[in-house]
């Protein structure tokens, strides 16, 4: 059955609905500020922050490599999309209830429960992302995709800004752990509403790629790596530059240890990170037809390299709002460039395969936060920042080799 204009329009609106409420949810469950600050307030150590960051950013993406053979072998993927997002919804509800009623929970169990629920949330998201990428590519007529991405960016920018202002106020209504309970309950409600968009999607076009077995899947990966030289450099890029989005959770710990920041400061960090993200996304939206990915890759690498220097040079706590502002820019430019370059190096038929292959590119982002937590514990923040800057420098080689033209 072919995709009709009416079905495409229905899916277009459904995916926009999801994107709008997902943007709202993401502010209240921000992985760079809210979640690490919650763990620190619960008594978490640098090593525990490293492990949790690895689960959220690297480990969940790496798990896509394991999910991909199973998901790819099913031509219709909406059911997997719903399984993934529903697991995230229940994990957020569990976090909200656990934190709000934490007085009834043994203190020694709280950190364990945070790890379990965040793991369900993260791995559920990775499972859903494989199906989402495939459904997005085949459920909207190609001529309207650019309009979809543009509309999504505008809606996301508006919602992110006002949601960040709201989150800052709600965050200050109470102290730990009740304030986090409020935040995660709002995130749960927003994600629940966003899932209605997925329920409304009409998946009519089957995916063409079939995977006979896990062995066959890894044979396909080997073939793609041999035939597509750019894929190797792309994996090198996300293995090195990918650690840039793992830095801010450690900045939260750094600020709390050296400047004794509180919930009010965390709310400000979140707000300025969102503002940086909105400004970067808006500029790239306006210049969408003018910039090349190559320049975007270099620009984000330079900013990521400079960020640890700014942290070490900071002499007072207010300087950190600038650091989180730049962090928001880095996150947005990295996300946009990574997704754009992935579309360049992949084709229509192998998009799910390539999304799974990107799990290989998350080996270092998965290991770096865990190693980083141990390094901070043993040697301090300076050694950690130097190692971070070394890997960012390595990313410049892969950017040069990618040579993105579009």
TrEMBL record:
It holds the Pfam family MFS_1. One of its GO terms (molecular function) is transmembrane transporter activity. Gene3D superfamilies: MFS general substrate transporter like domains. SUPFAM superfamilies: MFS general substrate transporter. InterPro entries: MFS, MFS_trans_sf, Sugar_transport-like. The chain crosses the membrane at residues 45-68, 80-103, 109-133, 154-174, 180-199, 234-255, 267-288, 295-314, 320-341, 353-375, 381-400. The keyword Lyase does not apply. Keywords: Membrane, Transmembrane, Transmembrane helix. PANTHER family: INTEGRAL MEMBRANE TRANSPORT PROTEIN-RELATED, MAJOR FACILITATOR SUPERFAMILY MFS_1. This is MFS transporter.
């Amino acid at each position: 059955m072919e995709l009709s204009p009416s079905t495409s329009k229905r899916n277009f609106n459904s995916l926009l609905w999801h994107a709008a409420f997902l943007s709202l949810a993401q502010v209240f469950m921000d992985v760079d500020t809210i979640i690490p600050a919650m763990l620190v307030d619960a008594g978490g150590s640098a090593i525990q922050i490293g492990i949790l960051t690895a689960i959220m950013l690297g480990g969940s993406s790496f798990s896509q490599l394991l999910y991909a053979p199973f998901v790819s072998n099913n031509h219709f993927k909406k059911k997997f999309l719903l399984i993934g997002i529903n697991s995230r919804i229940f994990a957020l509800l569990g976090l909200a209830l656990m934190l709000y009623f934490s007085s009834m929970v043994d203190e020694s169990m709280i950190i364990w429960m945070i790890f379990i629920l965040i793991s369900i949330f993260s791995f559920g998201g990775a499972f859903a992302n494989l199906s989402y990428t495939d459904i997005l590519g085949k459920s909207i007529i190609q001529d309207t995709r650019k309009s979809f991405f543009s509309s999504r960016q505008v809606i996301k920018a508006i919602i992110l800004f006002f949601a960040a202002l709201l989150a800052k106020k709600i965050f200050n209504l109470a102290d730990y752990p009740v304030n986090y309970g409020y935040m995660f309950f709002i995130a749960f409600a927003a994600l629940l509403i966003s899932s209605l968009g997925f329920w409304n999607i009409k998946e009519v076009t089957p995916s063409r790629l079939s995977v006979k077995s896990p062995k066959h899947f890894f044979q396909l990966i080997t073939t793609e790596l041999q035939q597509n030289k750019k894929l190797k450099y792309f994996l090198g890029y996300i293995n090195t530059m990918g650690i840039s989005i793992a830095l801010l959770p450690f900045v939260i710990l750094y600020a709390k240890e050296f400047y004794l920041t509180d919930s009010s400061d965390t709310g400000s960090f979140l707000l300025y990170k969102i503002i940086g993200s909105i400004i970067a996304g808006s500029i790239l939206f306006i210049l969408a037809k003018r910039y090349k990915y190559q320049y975007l890759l270099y620009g984000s690498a330079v900013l990521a390299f400079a960020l640890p220097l700014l942290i070490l040079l900071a002499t007072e706590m207010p300087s950190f709002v600038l650091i989180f502002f730049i962090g928001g820019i880095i996150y947005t430019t990295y996300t946009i460039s990574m997704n754009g370059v992935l579309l360049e190096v992949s084709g229509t038929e192998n998009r799910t395969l390539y999304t799974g292959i990107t799990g290989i590119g998350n080996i270092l982002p998965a290991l770096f936060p865990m190693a980083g937590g141990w390094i901070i514990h043993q040697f301090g923040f300076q050694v950690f920042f130097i190692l971070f800057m070394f890997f960012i420098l390595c990313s410049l080689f892969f950017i040069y080799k990618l040579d993105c033209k579009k």
